[in-house]
Design brief:
With 358 residues, the chain is of the alpha/beta class. Helices cover 42% and strands 17% of the residues. β2, α2 and β3 form a beta-alpha-beta unit.
Length: 358
């Protein structure tokens, strides 16, 4: 089974993301490029680059990094509404062509400061219906000579691209979301469905449901693939990993103080996937073999809500259990980001590429 391993490069101007204490050169192209080059050197295929209004433009950052690297594949997070589909398809095709086919796309439909760039919220059903149209138009523009499409949210007439993408069919589309509306989009339009760090039983249930949905909704693409986006706190020994993990959570708790509960509650909203993660803490601090839920009590958020903690052997075994369910794409990270690229890459990726004795 072929696995993909991607890291995460924070795309922020202000330092301190997920507790990373790095200050010098943070937010500069040189620092981001240095991380990308380290990814190339330590076994990573590329990295996810995040998006959000008020942060550096993700496409510009990805294009700049791609120009300074050789094999690094940027997984570029983008939002429908910030982009019109034809404009996005053209930019993606250009970067894919210029980079020799290294571009990957993570389509994000979650909440953002939409009004700041002239977009509107709409309800959940509308948001995902718009995303579905966006993804379908982009694919058609990457594969057809001329496209005319009139939907409820987007329309193009006699549209065509030059250049076309380097990759046949265009860049692969990664997608997240745990609501019923999101899963219907993933089942028909995505190449890879990304999951947050849930217990194995929850991931198995979702893979089964998405697989059945793909059939029920007459998916006309290659079979949907699955990925995991999670923090991996890896140390030489199990005891050292848990010591460091618990010490980090204690610092998070101290920093949060009495507002910890209110901070967690602020995460509870229409983002179904995030709420699923926050609810895990009620089931225990450690689930499955080494899935640590305590960070979510103190505002971990997203991939920082749950962590896989342990020695390289411990964490590799946990990731293999996800692989046994059908997960083949892994987007991992820990802080400080730059230092952990080497530690996690060198200690973990080799183990995961080794054949398993039967």
């Amino acid at each position: 089974m072929a696995f993909e391993f991607l890291w995460y490069i924070p795309n922020t101007v202000e330092p301190g993301h997920r507790g990373d204490t790095t200050v010098e050169r943070w937010g500069t192209l040189d620092f981001s490029t240095e991380q990308a080059l380290l990814c190339e050197q330590h076994g990573w295929g590329g990295a996810l680059i995040g998006t959000g209004w008020g942060r550096p433009d993700t496409f510009t950052v990805a294009a700049s990094i791609a120009a300074r690297t050789t094999t690094f594949s940027p997984l570029v997070a983008i939002r429908p509404g910030y982009w019109q589909p034809a404009h996005f398809a053209s930019s993606a095709a250009t970067l894919d062509q210029l980079s020799g086919g290294r571009l990957k796309i993570n389509v994000v439909s979650g909440q953002d400061d939409l009004a700041a760039y002239g977009d509107h919220e709409g309800d959940q059903a509308e948001r995902y219906a718009r995303t579905k149209e966006f993804m379908r138009i982009a694919r058609r523009l990457w594969t057809e000579d001329e496209v005319t499409f009139a939907g409820e949210h987007f329309a193009v007439t006699g549209s065509h691209l030059s250049p076309r993408p380097h990759q046949p069919g265009g860049p692969r589309l990664y997608f997240g979301g745990a609501s019923a509306a999101a899963e219907r989009v993933a089942a028909t339009e995505a190449d890879v469905q990304l999951f947050w760090g849930e217990p194995l039983a929850g991931i198995a249930e979702r893979i089964d449901r998405l697989t059945r949905l793909s059939v029920d909704l007459d998916r006309d693409l290659a079979p949907l693939e699955f990925g995991l986006r999670i923090t991996t706190l890896v140390r030489e020994t199990t005891d050292q990993a848990w010591h460091d993990a618990e010490a980090r959570v204690a610092r998070m708790a101290h920093a949060a103080g009495d507002v910890a509960g209110r901070r967690a509650e602020r995460h509870r909203g229409p983002a179904v996937g995030q709420q699923r993660l926050l609810d895990l803490a009620a089931r225990g601090d450690v689930l499955d073999s080494c899935l640590y839920t305590a960070p979510g009590r103190y505002g971990g958020g997203g991939a920082g809500t749950t962590w896989l903690v342990g020695s390289p052997t411990d964490v590799a075994a946990a990731l293999r259990r996800y692989a046994d369910l059908g997960v083949t794409h892994f987007v991992l990270s820990d802080t400080p980001y730059k230092q952990e690229i080497a530690r996690v890459g060198d200690s973990l990726i080799g183990l995961l590429r080794e054949p398993v004795a039967i």
